[in-house]
Amino acid sequence: MPELPEVEVIRRELAPLVCGKEFAAPVIHFPGVVHYPALELFRRLLPGRFIGELGRRGKYLLFLLDRGMLLAHLRMTGRLIYRPAGAAGDLPLPPRHLRLELPFADGGALYFYDSRKFGGFWLLEHPGEWEGAGLPSLGPDIWEEVDEASFLALLQARPRARIKPLLLDQGFVAGMGNIYTDESLFRSGIHPCRRVSSLTEEERRRLYRAIREVLAEGIACGGTTTRDYLDARGAAGSFQERLAVYGCKGEPCPCCGRPVERTVTAGRGTYFCPHCQS
Ligand SMILES: [Zn+2]
Fold first, then answer.
1. Long-range pairs, 42-45, Cβ under 8 A, ≥24
2. 158, exposed or middle or buried, with CB in 10 Å at 0-12, 13-18, 19+?
3. How much is the pLDDT for 238?
4. How far apart are CA 64 and CA 60, in angstroms?
5. Ligand 1 centre distance from Cα of residue 167 (Å)
6. Are the C-beta atoms of 19 and 134 separated by less than 8 Å?
């Protein structure tokens, strides 16, 4: 599932390609792809709007329009692919999983493919419509909006929480997912089941720095390609080659050589080294 680094990589690649473009009439291949507003309204409202900037909040991609904003969430298997005007040949991918085409007035288009159909789009007239559109409330973006002092303050407010589920809670901070959370906890030597109240200040600071490091590396590597993730040009990321524990059950821990273990924390598969993380 794309996490913050993957969405950020897509944002950086798409921004120069689509900013300034005007949407034409969307072609909806799967009605469930439009979460808000109603299908007819979406079809009617989008054409004629211009993309000013491409932003990101947590794992949401934000097309900031001259009026309102279009949000996309890729969920498990969503892929957004841009094709410029005049590109010859067939669709970027076979049509089987094509859910939405967003053509531009200049003849180019964005194609949204999604095999599992969990991804989708929301068209908001203004930011205040966020919750009314059925979107979950999000905490500050962990990459853009949280410095070390505010991270410590956020933790301070949640002493009873266990650290891994807390980091995954998008209402606490937005953007962390399973892969980068497990890697951050490993790098900071913190067991995923620890309660916040048991973490020393030094551990909290170490955790913050580890999160910054893994996110920065994830972005620099073009993201992590485990199953379906490919960026907007269809290229794979390479952070999977740097994973120390995630998906590495039974393999030697890069620090101590003992086998990495897998457990389930708050319903999510969790990889850790019981020797290096306490
Ligand atoms: Zn170890």
1. 42/121, 42/123, 45/123
2. middle
3. 87
4. 12
5. 22
6. no
Higher pLDDT, 200 or 92: 200
- pLDDT in the model for residue 208: 98
Helical H segments across the chain, by residue range: 4-18, 39-45, 148-156, 163-168, 178-187, 201-220
How far is C-alpha 31 from the geometric centre of its chain's CA atoms? 23
Give 38 Cα–ligand 1 centroid separation in angstroms.
51
Residue ranges of alpha helices (H) inside 169-223 are: 178-187, 201-220
Contact 177, 59 (CB under 8 A): yes
Answer whether 23's CB lies under 8 Å from 105's CB: yes
Within the chain, all domains assigned CATH 3.20.190.10 are found at 4-129
Q: Can you read off the two tokens belonging to residue 119?
A: 């991804």
Q: Supply the residues annotated as catalytic.
A: 2-3, 59, 268
CB atoms within 10 A of CB 94: 9
CATH class of 148-272: mainly alpha
* Cα of 113 from ligand 1 centre, angstroms: 39
Homologous superfamily of 4-129: MutM-like, N-terminal (3.20.190.10)
C-alpha distance across the termini of the chain, in Å:
27
More confident residue, 228 or 144: 144
The pLDDT score that the predictor gives to residue 64 is: 98
| C-alpha to C-alpha distance for 172 and 142, rounded to whole angstroms | 9
- Among candidate residues 56, 57, 93, the one with its CA nearest the CA of residue 78: 93
The encoded tokens of residue 148 equal 């070390």
Ligand 1 center–CA 228 separation, angstroms: 29
